[in-house]
Amino acid sequence: MIDYFYSHQDKIISSAIVLVVFFVFRIVVGIIVRGIGKSKKILVSRAKIVARYFSVSLFLVTLLIVGFIFGIDIDDLVVVFSSVFAVIGLALFASWSILSNVTSGIILFFSFPYKIGDKIKIHDKEFEIEAVIEDIRSYQIHLRKDNGDLVTYPNSMLLQKAVTLIEKDAFDK
């Protein structure tokens, strides 16, 4: 066992450095996302979800780098990734709307100009929804109509439709 550590000492040190860099990047990304959330007055829970998405992505990149450090053959990696992506591709094709809504939720976190409490109107050619934003989640936005009805609207559809601000922070009434 000790011989293994001596023979692979440089790989172990390199992997430790990569892991330290990963944890530092993870903390920095978390601080940046929470800072953006705070500056845009977004709920802390939404900022945590977006930070978690970035952390998982950084973790996967870290695993890939550590694999290269320990000498994983690229041909073997191609076989593994093609197999994994084939299975994931089939699964995501079956649930494409979930993936598009999560991606839209991340986009809405960084660029949606309206906040919880704002009264908005969503323009669609078949109907219009006029309601107050009650919550913005990973998959959908919760809207409360004047008659008290709760409408859940998919994030991906919200990015595709025209939205008009009716009243800023309607909850303050």
Q: How do the SSEs run, as a string of H and E?
A: HHHHHEEEEHE
Count of helical regions: 6
Shape: elongated
Unreliable stretches: none
Q: What is the structural class? A: alpha+beta
Largest sheet: 5 strands, antiparallel
* Proportion of helical residues: 55-70%
DSSP E strands, number: 5
Mean pLDDT score? 84
- Radius of gyration over alpha carbons? 22 Å
Measured by DSSP, the beta-strand proportion falls in 15-25%
Rounded to the nearest angstrom, the distance between the terminal CA atoms is 69 Å
Q: Widest sheet: strand order?
A: 4-3-2-1-5
Description:
The protein has 173 residues and is an alpha+beta fold. 61% of the residues lie in helices and 18% in strands. It has helices spanning 2-7, 9-39, 44-69, 74-94, 96-111, 155-160, and strands at residues 119-123, 128-136, 140-145, 150-154, 162-167. Strands 4-3-2-1-5 form a five-stranded antiparallel beta sheet. Strand 3 (140-145) and strand 4 form a beta hairpin. The chain starts with a helix and ends in a 6-residue tail after the last strand. The mean pLDDT is 84.
